[in-house]
Amino acid sequence: MEMLDEVWKQFESAFVPQDACAEQRTDMRLAFFGGICSIAALNGSLSDLPEDERAKAYAQISNELHWFRAGDIAEALMQGIYDNYVRPPSSTT
Questions:
Q1: Which of 12, 19, 20, 41 is the most exposed place for a label (fewest CB within 10 A)?
Q2: Any idea what DSSP says for residue 88?
Q3: 31 CB-near residues (< 8 Å, 6+ apart)
Q4: Ranges of the chain with pLDDT below 70
Q5: Do the Cβ atoms of 53 and 37 come closer than 8 Å?
Q6: Residue 58's closest CA among 43, 40, 79, 77?
Q7: What gap in Å lies between CA 67 and CA 2, rounded to an integer?
Q8: Measured distance CA(72)–CA(68) in Å, rounded
Q9: Rounded CA gap, 77 and 71, in Å?
Q10: Cα dihedral sign for 69, 73, 78, 81?
């Protein structure tokens, strides 16, 4: 868990508001680790595929993530918070 905890700390400092209440911080942590579990399960499923199918699946996932992030950036631009989205304030904790 030490490796994942370190990744959580990096995510937390980049994306969880410094003034987040304990409940929001807990919800973010649960969602973060839920995402990690989903990625691990997906990776396990993909590892069973033949190499050419696995490569296609990873390419599809990469493409979907690209467009998902593009949508997030577009939303941030519309809300006028692009700078905070791209360069989150660094944590002083």
A1: 19
A2: P
A3: none
A4: 1, 73, 76-93
A5: no
A6: 43
A7: 31
A8: 6
A9: 10
A10: positive
- Give the integer Cα–Cα distance in Å for 67 and 74: 10
Closest CA to 18 of 32, 7, 28, 31: 28
Residue 65's φ and ψ, nearest 5 degrees, are: -65, -40
Query: Which of 29, 37, 38, 26 shows the shortest CA–CA distance to 10?
Result: 29
Per-residue tokens: 80:
């006028």
The per-residue pLDDT for 84 is 54
> What are 10-35's pLDDT values in tens digits?
999 988 988 999 999 999 999 999 99
Side chain identity, residue 34: G
CB 20 within 8 A of CB 28: yes
How many residues are recorded in the chain? 93
